[in-house]
Design a protein that fits this description.
Oligomer: single chain
Largest sheet: 4 strands, antiparallel
Radius of gyration: 23 Å
Strand content: 5-15%
Order of helices and strands: HHHEHHEEE
Structural class: alpha+beta
Number of strands: 4
Length: about 190
């Protein structure tokens, strides 16, 4: 009995079907990879949020004085990573997996710190005498802790269909939400 081989037509049909299947799988794999990066970034920000809470327990009512943006540490003597190194000792937690600008490689963080403002840092000074501005900022943060971002993406690393430049941010209460890039309207926070 002679074995029958595939004809050229049959082989082309099988190849066409396989290419269609692969073509439909790749976009979904890409979406899954992007979602995994989004979740990892949220996990990093949650870890920073836990460190934030520990810092607040150690220095009640105080905000670390640190550079706001990556690469502008010359404005203040320390970075947020240095200020919170006891609470967040793992440096990789400051790296967003979607950091395509390579802030982490250049500056040691993919995230911005929004509360620097040149306030005195109690972790270096040991003083508990806060300025009126710091007390006012702290009062605002405590009144609505889920509304105010503390640390967030330095760029729009995780765009959404609704807002391609929205940033993931860790809020004062430790939660993580999307915030519009302009930060003028905090009512635009998305859960």
């Amino acid at each position: 009995m002679r074995r029958r081989a595939f004809t050229l037509i049959e082989l082309l049909v099988v190849i066409a079907i396989m290419s269609l299947l692969v073509g439909t799988l790749f976009p979904s794999l890409s979406k899954a990879r992007d979602y995994a990066k989004l979740v990892m970034c949220r996990t990093n920000l949650k870890g920073i949020g836990l460190g934030w809470k520990m810092y607040n327990d150690e220095y009640p009512g105080a905000l670390p004085s640190a550079a706001s943006l990556p690469g502008v540490a010359d404005q203040v003597p320390r970075t947020i990573m240095e200020c919170m190194s006891a609470q967040v000792p793992e440096p990789k937690i400051w790296q967003c997996p979607n950091d395509d600008v390579q802030y982490f490689e250049q500056y040691g963080t993919s995230y911005e710190y929004y509360c620097g403002l040149g306030l005195p840092d109690p972790s270096t000074s040991g003083k508990q005498a806060y300025t009126e501005m710091e007390k006012t900022i702290w009062t605002i943060l405590e009144e609505e802790p889920s509304r105010w971002p503390i640390v967030g993406d330095a760029e729009g690393f995780h765009p959404t269909a609704a807002d391609p430049m929205a940033r993931q941010c860790m809020m004062h209460d430790g939660s993580v939400n999307y915030v519009a890039e302009d930060f003028d309207n905090y009512d635009s926070i998305k859960g």
